[in-house]
Amino acid sequence: MSFNAVIEQLESVFDQVYVDGTDDELFASGYLRGHFDLVVARMEMNDETDAQAIIPNLQAAVEQAKHELAPADQTHVNNLVEQLDTVVRSV
């Protein structure tokens, strides 16, 4: 599957959270979406189109910014990263 197709699938996970998510999940989704968009943009600027690299790059970005979140929020963000990882692994 192409890089852009994987991006679209991951974006649908974010979209679904907006439809069905709890308040905590909505917060985590909004927070993570910002990191996701930056990671994808950096990858595209560097002509890095390996879809399997998205999640490790996203995890690194979240790890660098973990001081911004309370532990409970970190848990919600990490749970969403795991959902995204499952999507990438399934394609």
Residues in helix, %: over 70%
DSSP strand (E) fraction? under 5%
What separation lies between the terminal Cα atoms? 7 Å
Q: Tell the overall outline.
A: globular
Whole-angstrom Rg: 13 Å
Structural category is mainly alpha
Number of strands: 0
What is the overall pLDDT average? Answer: 96
Query: Number of DSSP helices?
Result: 4
Could you state the order of secondary-structure elements as H and E? HHHH
Primary descriptors:
4 helices, mainly alpha
Short description:
This protein is an all-alpha fold. It contains 4 helices and no strands.
Descriptive account of the structure:
This protein has 4 helices and no strands. The termini are close together. The chain is 79% helix and 0% strand. The protein has 91 residues and is mainly alpha-helical. 19% of the residues are buried. Helix 1 packs across helix 4, helix 2 packs across helix 4 and helix 3 packs antiparallel against helix 4. The model has no long low-confidence stretch (mean pLDDT 96).
